[in-house]
User: Which sequence fits this backbone?
């Protein structure tokens, strides 16, 4: 009996040890699982926060780029408003003539051609090299003058009077004279233009033509009776 009791006690002890070991293993497993789950949850939360922060950063960058790329409307409007008014070739006034003569001053021949052809409706330029000569120093014919003319392809008016062409004279590589010209004119038309010119610039007559002081300098209005050509011109030299 004693042996049987000893064997049973020993078997019971082994069973208890095995049970305790199993409980310990399960507890460790559950703890490990809990830690693993907690770590996974923390990692997922961190990744979501990182993604949200990245998206917010991307949206902020996009907004800044859009604002940078878009010009300020008020600045654009101000720049547009400050643009100078160009010469109007449809119906010029003496103020437009004054502006045109001023714009031509100091330009090279190529610049003058570009200005005329972009400002007025004209045909191809007609060139006459050595058209006439003018005094230069002691030489009465020392300055060779080259002529460049453009006929108007559609009406160009000055104070309501239609003109036929614009002429530019060049001497020594610089502009010498510029003029607007009208064929088949008459004294009444010339007189009407002189009256309007006098209301714009102070009259200063000479033996050749009536002149008017404008911002560009003296502007003359002259009717050549032999050819009935009316000219409004300004001399630069």
Assistant:
């Amino acid at each position: 009996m004693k042996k049987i009791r000893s064997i049973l006690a020993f078997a019971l002890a082994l069973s208890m040890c095995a049970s305790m070991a199993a409980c310990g293993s399960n507890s460790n497993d559950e703890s490990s699982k809990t830690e693993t789950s907690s770590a996974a949850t923390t990692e997922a939360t961190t990744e979501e926060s990182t993604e949200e922060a990245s998206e917010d950063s991307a949206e902020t960058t996009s907004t800044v780029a859009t604002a940078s790329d878009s010009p300020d409307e008020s600045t654009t409007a101000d720049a547009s408003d400050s643009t100078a008014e160009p010469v109007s070739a449809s119906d010029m006034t003496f103020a437009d003539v004054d502006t045109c003569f001023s714009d031509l001053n100091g330009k090279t021949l190529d610049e003058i051609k570009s200005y005329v052809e972009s400002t007025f409706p004209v045909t191809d330029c007609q060139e006459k090299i050595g058209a006439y000569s003018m005094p230069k120093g002691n030489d009465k014919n020392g300055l060779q003058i080259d002529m460049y003319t453009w006929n108007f392809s559609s009406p160009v008016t000055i104070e309501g009077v239609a003109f036929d062409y614009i002429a530019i004279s060049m001497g020594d590589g610089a502009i010498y004279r510029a003029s607007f010209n009208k064929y088949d004119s008459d004294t009444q038309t010339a007189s009407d233009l002189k009256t309007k010119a006098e209301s714009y610039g102070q009259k200063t007559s000479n033996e050749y033509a009536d002149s008017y002081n404008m911002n560009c300098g003296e502007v003359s209005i002259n009717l050549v009776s032999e050819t009935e050509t009316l000219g409004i011109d300004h001399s630069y030299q």
